[in-house]
């Protein structure tokens, strides 16, 4: 028996082997997104083609709607698969190939009609994020099956270390833009991001996966979608979590506008934008490290509260800024809020979801969060267009404060909450066991020995 136990332990992969594929992809994915820099260089590129703030707001709007749109349609398929590795690699390819095509589109058509360039980029960006929604859902479920809950934050910590490379990447993109021109330089950065991230998806071939229990429930797509609103009503904790995340998403809409605000108010150019990208790289690095470590040790609720607080302070700092250099600190704080929110927003639903329903919970989370952030982003662009950037930043800060209130008052830490549930169940089992061992006749005889007298005045019930 001891020999069998020893053999089983040897057969189980070490924590380093479990984490390596996920951590490696986290690192290379961060490098790819650093080349694109959707918070700085992407808005600057679109601003060179159009003065519309609504178009700038479409960057996060399309990202969130695209990420949310396919999740409900594949969640059932995920829950009915015993293994997910091949499916995960396929969905990652669907996400990342479009980044390569965006780069080629910018290089090939960037010198043509601005409207054509913007339209093509946004359509390809939408397809990329539809693939991203599939990849996130399948990849998160694969991680939930393979990596224990108390190790998942370490993956984000590796991402934090890789984000430091964003400093060099930002300077590299600046060099490409200033040397080759905005169209060719940024097009090459986008294409390189796609190639790097496509190659990275193959690392998941190393994942060791065991057959997982599959959902046996037969249900039409219409019936499956119809049950989702009821799930939010039944699971109040998850419902409040989703509501708080929607408020968080509204606060995060300010991110896309810090660069164009710096250009409009302070006349920022490629050099200043590069330094804002450096600030965001430092913020993402700190956020991934902090969020991963704090989430593993204390749970992800506190990480979401820290994230929301950062998204309150960043727009208030932008309102108060009197020089472009101060926006460095704004972007640093904003990236801290974004990255800690990414870590906790991905991992906390994995802990809130019952076994066998992880894909459904993730799909429901993104189905609510995606449209909420899309509408908030479009509204943010319109608000900046009509009332100015300070009004937009003030509304974003108010949404972040509301998110903090909901997280504090309505969303318990899942690990503590689950422990309380287990403790309550054990207490009920104990009382039932004592009841089975009890003797009613003995109880009545014991009560008969109690004196039949009036209680003392201090022990009487006050009517």
What do these coordinates show?
This protein has 463 residues and is an all-alpha fold. It has one domain: MFS general substrate transporter like domains (Growth Hormone, Chain: A, Up-down Bundle). The protein has 20 helices and no strands. Helix 2 runs antiparallel to helix 10, helix 12 packs antiparallel against helix 16 and helix 12 runs parallel beside helix 17. The termini are far apart.
Describe this structure in a few short sentences.
The protein is mainly alpha-helical.
Q: Number of helical runs?
A: 20
The helicity comes to: over 70%
Low-confidence stretches: 1-11, 419-427
How would you sum up the global shape?
A: globular
State Rg: 26 Å
- Overall tally of domains: 1
Largest sheet: none
How far is the N terminus from the C terminus?
Answer: 66 Å
From the 3D structure, determine the CATH topology: Growth Hormone, Chain: A
Which CATH architecture would you pick?
Answer: Up-down Bundle
What is the CATH top level name? Mainly Alpha
- Mean pLDDT reading: 82
State the order of secondary-structure elements, H for helix, E for strand: HHHHHHHHHHHHHHHHHHHH
User: What is the total tally of β strands?
Assistant: 0
**Strand percentage, roughly?**
under 5%
CATH homologous superfamily classification: MFS general substrate transporter like domains
Decide which structural class fits the backbone.
mainly alpha
Main features:
mainly alpha; Growth Hormone, Chain: A; 463 residues; 20 helices
């Amino acid at each position: 028996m001891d020999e069998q136990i020893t053999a089983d332990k040897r057969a189980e992969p070490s924590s380093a082997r479990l984490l390596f594929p996920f951590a490696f992809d986290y690192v290379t994915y961060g490098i790819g997104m650093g080349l694109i820099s959707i918070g700085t260089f992407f808005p600057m590129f679109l601003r060179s083609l159009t003065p519309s703030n609504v178009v700038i707001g479409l960057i996060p709007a399309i990202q969130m709607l695209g990420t949310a749109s396919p999740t409900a349609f594949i969640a059932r398929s995920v829950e009915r698969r015993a293994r997910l590795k091949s499916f995960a690699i396929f969905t990652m390819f669907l996400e990342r190939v479009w980044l390569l095509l965006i780069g080629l589109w910018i290089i090939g058509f960037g010198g043509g009609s601005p409207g054509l360039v913007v339209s093509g980029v946004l359509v390809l960006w939408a397809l990329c994020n539809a693939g991203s929604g599939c990849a996130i859902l399948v990849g998160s479920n694969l991680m939930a099956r393979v990596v224990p809950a108390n190790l998942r934050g370490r993956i984000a910590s590796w991402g934090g270390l890789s984000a430091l490379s964003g400093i060099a990447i930002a300077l590299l993109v600046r060099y490409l833009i200033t040397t080759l021109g905005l169209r060719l330089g940024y097009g090459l950065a986008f294409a390189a991001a796609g190639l790097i991230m496509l190659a990275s998806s193959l690392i998941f071939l190393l994942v060791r996966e065991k057959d997982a229990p599959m959902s046996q429930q037969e249900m039409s797509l219409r019936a499956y979608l119809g049950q989702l609103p009821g799930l939010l009503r039944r699971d109040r904790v998850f419902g409040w979590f989703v509501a708080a995340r929607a408020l968080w998403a509204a606060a995060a809409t300010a991110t896309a506008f810090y660069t164009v605000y710096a250009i409009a108010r302070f006349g920022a150019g490629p050099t200043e934008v590069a330094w804002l990208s450096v600030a965001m790289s430092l913020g993402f690095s700190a956020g991934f490290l902090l969020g991963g470590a704090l989430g593993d040790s204390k749970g992800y609720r506190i990480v979401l509260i820290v994230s929301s607080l950062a998204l309150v302070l960043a727009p208030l700092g932008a309102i108060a800024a009197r020089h472009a250099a101060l926006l460095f600190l704004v972007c640093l704080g904003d990236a801290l809020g974004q990255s800690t929110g990414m870590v906790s927003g991905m991992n906390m639903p994995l802990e809130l979801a019952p076994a066998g329903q992880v894909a459904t919970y993730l799909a429901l989370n993104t189905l609510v969060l995606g449209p909420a952030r899309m509408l908030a982003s479009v509204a943010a662009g319109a608000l900046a267009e009509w009332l100015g950037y300070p009004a937009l930043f003030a509304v974003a800060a108010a949404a972040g404060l509301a998110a903090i209130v909901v997280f504090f008052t309505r969303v318990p830490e899942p690990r503590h909450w689950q422990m309380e549930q287990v403790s309550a169940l054990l207490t009920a089992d104990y009382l039932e066991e004592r009841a089975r061992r009890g003797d009613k006749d003995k109880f009545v005889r014991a009560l008969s020995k109690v004196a039949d007298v009036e209680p003392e005045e201090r022990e009487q019930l006050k009517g």
